[in-house]
């Protein structure tokens, strides 16, 4: 335990279960002394989110569907009434039709393209519009992205295009909000077996590939992501904004892995 976020209040969005990246981040924040609020999508998730929130000493659990402006307004009205001030935001939300997370990107439908961009990209901007108003003393926000934004990864398809737009929006948000002392960054996490990831075709193969080919020769965990998130959300990251921090066991630097036992 440390006190890196003592006296700080943060909103965690995107907790679905104890495999969620949001859970790894929430645990690291709670361990650092933060007071947390959680938003969840749809009544079905409440029975999972409530006990997890309670485990970290939080009873501020609020519904929010980021496709719905009124739902986002209601979340921030609740936060304003309960807290007044907000110090950090974790946006760990993404969605696309899993039928289009396999096969060819070129087949992407207009409807799913629009929906994927809305939920996975615009929502972060929409949340920051509202969060900004509660961060009069400055703040820090992070979102989650993936290497499929930078390079073509199998089956990532429209989600790769959406993550590229998300990473660009992080830079624009960093500039707009920097004047108010609000930092905005992303974490590019390596593949982790979560609910969202299980929608991606051949995900087990992708996990194995990353384990074998990353410099650390392993996959990352939600706790690895949580520790890096703590750096960006706390004063340790005070000079960092507009950044995309790869928490991927180094996979993004590899062009071609050295042959461990060369005999060619
Ligand atoms: P997850 O399924 O645990 O979390 C995804 C969350 O998005 C869920 O809590 C879901 O309720 C929420 N969500 C979807 N649509 C929503 C909506 N309309 N309104 C509100 N919430 C909504 O999976 P995860 O892997 O922890 O995903 C979190 C983030 O991390 C996503 O942005 C994902 O793209 C990103 N990411 C995941 C991986 C990975 O391999 N798992 C790697 C890099 C980045």
What report would you give on this structure?
The structure is a single chain. By secondary structure, this protein is of the alpha/beta class. The chain has a single domain (9-251), classed as NAD(P)-binding Rossmann-like Domain (Rossmann fold), CATH 3.40.50. Helix content is 40%, strand content 14%. The protein has 7 helices and 7 strands. The protein has helices spanning 21-31, 43-55, 69-82, 110-132, 157-178, 203-213, 222-233, and strands at residues 9-13, 35-40, 60-63, 88-91, 139-145, 182-189, 244-247. A 7-stranded parallel β-sheet has the order 3-2-1-4-5-6-7, sandwiched between helices. Helix 1 packs across helix 7 and helix 3 (69-82) runs parallel beside helix 4. It starts with 8 loop residues before the first strand and ends in a 17-residue tail after the last strand. Nicotinamide-adenine-dinucleotide is lined by residues 14-16, 20-22, 41, 45, 64-67, 92-95, 119, 144-146, 189, 191-192, 194-197.
**CATH top level?**
Alpha Beta
**Oligomeric state of the chains?**
single chain
Rg calculated over all Cα atoms = 18 Å
State the CATH superfamily name. Answer: NAD(P)-binding Rossmann-like Domain
Largest sheet: 7 strands, parallel
Give the helix level as a range of percent: 40-55%
The gross shape turns out to be globular
Strand arrangement, major sheet: 3-2-1-4-5-6-7
* Overall pLDDT score: 97
Q: Approximately how much beta-strand content do the residues carry?
A: 5-15%
- Provide the low-confidence segments as ranges: none
Count of the domains: 1
CATH topology: Rossmann fold
Order of helices and strands, N to C? EHEHEHEHEHEHHE
Put simply, the count of helices is 7
The small-molecule ligands in this entry are: nicotinamide-adenine-dinucleotide
- The CATH architecture classification is 3-Layer(aba) Sandwich
Distance between the termini: 49 Å
Please tally the β strands and state the result.
Answer: 7
Structural class: alpha/beta
């Amino acid at each position: 335990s440390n006190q890196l976020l003592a006296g700080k209040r943060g909103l965690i969005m995107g907790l679905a279960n104890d495999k969620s990246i949001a859970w790894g981040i929430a645990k690291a924040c709670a361990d650092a002394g933060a007071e947390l609020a959680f938003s969840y999508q749809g009544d079905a998730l409440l029975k999972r989110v409530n006990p997890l929130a309670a485990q970290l000493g939080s009873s501020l659990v609020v519904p929010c569907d980021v496709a719905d402006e009124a739902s986002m307004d209601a979340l921030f009205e609740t936060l304003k009434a309960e807290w007044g001030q907000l110090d950090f935001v974790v946006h760990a939300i993404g969605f696309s039709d899993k039928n289009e997370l396999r096969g060819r990107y070129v087949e992407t439908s207009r409807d799913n393209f629009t929906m994927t961009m809305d939920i996975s990209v615009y929502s972060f901007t929409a949340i920051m519009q509202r969060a900004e108003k509660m961060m009069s003393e400055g703040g820090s926000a992070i979102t989650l992205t993936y290497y499929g934004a930078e390079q073509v990864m199998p089956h990532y398809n429209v989600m790769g295009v959406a993550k590229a737009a998300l990473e660009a929006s992080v830079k624009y948000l960093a500039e707009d909000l920097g004047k108010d002392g609000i930092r905005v960054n992303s974490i590019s996490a390596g593949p982790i077996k979560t609910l969202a990831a299980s929608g991606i075709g051949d995900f087990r193969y992708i996990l194995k590939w990353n384990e074998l080919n990353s410099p650390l020769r392993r996959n990352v965990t939600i706790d690895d992501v949580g520790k890096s998130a703590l750096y960006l959300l706390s004063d340790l990251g005070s000079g960092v904004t507009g950044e995309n921090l790869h928490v991927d066991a180094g996979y993004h630097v590899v062009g071609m892995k050295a042959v461990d036992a060369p005999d060619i």
